[in-house]
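Please, structure for the following, as tokens.
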Amino acid sequence: MIRGYLNIVLLFLIILLISGCSEKAPSNAVIKSSPSSIVEDKLILAGSGSNIPITSKLVEGYRIKTGENVEVLESIGTDGAINAIKSGRLELGLASRPLTAEEREFGLKELPYARVAVVFGVHRDVPDTRISTSEIIEILKGLKTTWSNGAKIYVFVREPKDSSNIVLYEQIPGYKKVLFESYADRRWEVLYSDGGMTGTLQNTKNSFGVVNTTDIATVNSIKALDVNGISPTQENVLSGDYNLIKDLTFVYKDQLSIRSENFLNFVFSPEGKQMLTKWGAVPLGRYCYIN
């Protein structure tokens, strides 16, 4: 028990070392549809579904601290956020992939605020606790069809351009090839949002799919499998031992408004970083926002 406490303290100290920034704060985690235009009296955040769970927690903490309202819209994807920023309909977007060279040339900027682990999630009733990358390939091929107790594996996959899939294409040899083969064969059901995948894994016994640590931080019915013997803990993300990771970023174009500056100052404050840690992310303070 003492060792567990010391690990928590050590993790917090490491996070403080890699971060460090300013304070301030606005928000109310109201989730709506896509933005039509920049609203002058409130800050609206929209973009990747990967960002929404943890950003909604930040927004709620900001509202409690300051009384300021910030809206978090339903997922419109990273591309949707970028298009909305380009057209002037959104000031601050949520992205779960790096900007392309073309997007940077257009004048877009990115501000990473959290690092999350991409995990292979299963329903809590699955007895297995670990999986190898070769077994992942076998599952996607349809060659490995049962868990260790003999129960049938129900496989769900995300669409080709999903940001978690992009990470897996780079880190797991053969993953992209076998996934695209499964699309062509219509082997597995394809889900098009983080919420859709999380909800499906929650409600389907013996299920298997790709999620993020922040997707399942508040969900007791989904657990993350260790990959090649390595757990997707915050310590292992920080050390690089667990390499299936992606950064969540804020994206913007022009000089930010005071309301955006205040919210970002809260995100990078000690209180904001504590919230990120609590809900399954590693805060990225080395990219601190400066007024």
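The chain has two domains: 2-115+247-287, 116-239. The domain at 2-115+247-287 is CATH 3.40.190.10 (D-Maltodextrin-Binding Protein; domain 2).
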